[in-house]
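Morning F.,

Quick status update on the modeling queue. The single chain you submitted on Monday has been processed. Sequence for confirmation:
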Amino acid sequence: MGKTALVVGATGLIGRELVEQLLEQERYDAVWIVVRRSKRWSHPELHEIVGFEKMDETLPHIDDVYCALGTTIAVAGSQQAFKHVDLELPLEVARVAKQHGATRYAVVSAQGASLRSPFFYNRVKGELENGLKVFGFEHLIIARPSLLLGDRESFRLGEKAAEVVSRPFQPLLLEKVPNAAPIQALHVARALIMAAEEGQGTEVLTSGMMQGMSQ
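Structure tokens below.
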């Protein structure tokens, strides 16, 4: 019997890549996703839960969790709304998934995540990382990507501008400062899935490490 995976943030940049790649993995018999609105994706191994409040009563046994939840303050509308998506929901997912048997949790954090960061965004990511450690998962995988590249459903002007400006320097950054180089969402997803094949304790994946895992 194969494993069962849970993906939250499945409609985002990394989340979509996670779902597509997980459905190709022979080690998973089922992939469950939690979304706010039904996407009506059609695949025999894909199962959808509409609404985070329904997770506890609907989820089966879960082995591995992949969390790609994330927004921006501009999109969320306030710092509190941002914390709800980027901190409170991932921690609630961890609580419910642990009760349903999950032993591995892979999460997309951010480069510079730290409780002591002068930046609100990175402090929240630091809170998330620390909060997840409390649950005692056998294997906690923390991805800290730099600027993410890929096709988003929603347009983010600041990220798009940064992508355009950094594009000429990407080869040099990859060679000299790999952790600062922009990274494709599909490479982050692939690295998380590869890391989830085995391992124990807390594992942190930097952009440079994830680039290397995708080569």
